[in-house]
From TrEMBL:
Entry-linked InterPro entries: Amidohydro-rel, Metal-dep_hydrolase_composite, Metal_Hydrolase, Metallo-dep_Hydrolase
Occurrences of domain Amidohydrolase-related (ranges): 100-429
Classification via PANTHER family: ALPHA-D-RIBOSE 1-METHYLPHOSPHONATE 5-TRIPHOSPHATE DIPHOSPHATASE (PTHR43135)
Superkingdom, taxonomy of origin: Bacteria
Name assigned to this protein: Amidohydrolase family protein
Chain coiled-coil ranges: none
Keyword Signal: yes
Signal peptide: 1-27
Organism: Cyclobacterium plantarum
Record keywords: Signal
Entries under Pfam families matching the protein: Amidohydro_1
């Protein structure tokens, strides 16, 4: 058996051989980059934020009366006022009554050449986004931007199986060779991840994982037809949408009925998810087994709860289903699954442009502490993007993506709606700028 396995590995590596010569730099670089690195300050002026409550994203308690120094586009020093001296000539920002946090990172946001929308997201505190699944051409507008935009990480068109779902957003996989070619092409275009969509057959997952691993880029997936435990056993570590766990948690007959419905009609999943989740018994042994598997395999979950939120006044089964989704996120967190924040743009009960903040509120409702939610929105997402050496926390040497928030979100997460100032790459963003 060992000889057969070795032979298979050799065959796979030979299949990737033609990629090695032209892409060695990608394979050696563990830190992934945005496709639109923002310009930084034109000089090394030191900026000092003083008299502020520091919430650094690392999960520890806030530091009161803190000082953060920024030089160029990097964080120079951070600490209490008796630890950090403000140099003469520094540009001072008084943070009295406010909290300073790392810029928020959105793991799941979609856009189609809309710089105005991206700028609005930035002014609401989100300094970095990842679009899991939209093709590169949906971001051509970035190259013509006249204003500051969040850092944008892309995965390229999602990998789907025939006949596909959103054909303008998909690459329909034909073979394992096709997968290798697609991923090489995506990396060459600046792709920093791969998105599997729900009609891609399980038989292709291993090739996707291994090819992506060659380039040191993560793979995330939206599941409907493939059970979460099968995807995890195939090597998947990033799961988008809480609903992706549905068929793994449900009674086998309910899961079979759901899969058959989706197989026959893509749109069945829209209401079918609520029907499925309304029947799930979260006390069942299979739920504990799925969570244990997710923890063992270091799975990261971006629940996008906001997009599925239903409340009293909606259909009773929908409200019941969402309550199960919310409770499962709490159970996953308690079990040790890494939870990250993704807005999925909007939700029925989210204010326009503030779906991210609503997602943070829902995490607290699920049982996470505000400080845990802040880490999920900053450093945990930076790890998810594999860019934690540059972003995600307020530490010397990291890029100066910062937000000033009125109040104390470590006590009340609703303070995250009160964004007062945003710094991107060492420069304050003009939040009142009109973007055409």
């Amino acid at each position: 058996m060992k000889t057969v396995k070795l032979s298979n590995n050799i065959i796979f590596l030979l299949g990737l051989g033609f990629l090695c010569l032209t892409n060695l730099a990608f394979a050696q670089n563990p830190s992934l980059l945005e496709v639109n690195p923002p310009e930084g300050p034109s000089n090394n002026q030191v900026r000092a934020i003083v008299n502020v409550r520091l919430i650094d994203g690392l999960g520890g308690p806030p530091q009161e009366n803190a000082v953060v120094l920024v030089k160029g586009n990097r964080i120079l020093k951070a600490g209490t006022e008796d630890q950090v001296a403000v140099p003469v000539g520094a540009e001072i920002t008084d943070g009295t009554g406010m909290s300073l946090l790392p810029g928020l990172i959105d793991s799941h946001l979609h856009n189609v050449n809309n710089n105005k929308a991206l700028h609005a997201i930035l002014t609401n505190g989100v300094t970095t986004v990842r679009d899991p699944g939209h093709p590169f051409r949906f971001y051509q507008s970035l190259h013509f931007a006249q204003t500051k935009l969040p850092r944008v990480y892309l995965t390229g068109a999602h990998l789907d199986g025939y006949p596909g779902v959103y054909l303008d957003q998909a690459a329909l996989v034909r073979s394992t060779d096709h997968i290798q070619t697609l991923i090489k092409d995506y990396v060459m275009q600046g792709g920093s991840g791969i998105k599997i969509y729900f009609r891609l057959p399980l038989k292709y997952y291993e090739t996707v994982m291994r090819t992506a691993d060659f380039y040191h880029i993560p793979v995330v997936a939206h599941l409907e037809l493939v059970d979460a435990e099968d995807a995890i056993l195939a090597g998947l570590q990033g799961i988008e949408h809480i609903t992706s766990f549905g068929t793994s948690l449900a009674e086998p007959e309910d899961a079979r009925e759901f899969r058959e419905g989706v197989q026959a009609d893509n749109n069945y999943r829209r209401d079918g998810r609520y029907l499925l989740w309304s029947k799930i018994d979260l006390s069942a042994d299979r739920v504990k087994e799925v969570l244990a598997l997710a923890v063992k395999n270091n799975v990261v979950l971006s629940p996008t709860l906001t997009t599925f939120e239903r409340q009293a006044g909606d259909e009773e089964y929908q409200a019941k289903a969402f309550k199960n989704m919310l409770d499962f996120v709490g159970m996953a967190h308690q079990a040790g699954v890494t939870i990250v924040t993704g807005s999925h743009n909007s939700g029925k009960y989210a204010q326009r442009g503030l779906a991210y903040q609503r997602e943070m509120e829902l995490f607290v409702e699920a049982g996470m502490s505000p400080l845990e939610v802040i880490s999920s929105s900053t450093l945990h997402n930076a790890h998810y993007f594999r860019t934690q050496d540059r972003l995600g926390s307020i530490e010397p040497g990291k890029l100066a993506d910062l937000i000033l928030v009125e109040g104390n979100p470590a006590v009340d997460i609703k303070a995250m709606y009160a964004i007062k100032k945003v710094m991107l790459n060492g420069e304050w963003v003009d939040r009142d700028e009109v973007v055409e």
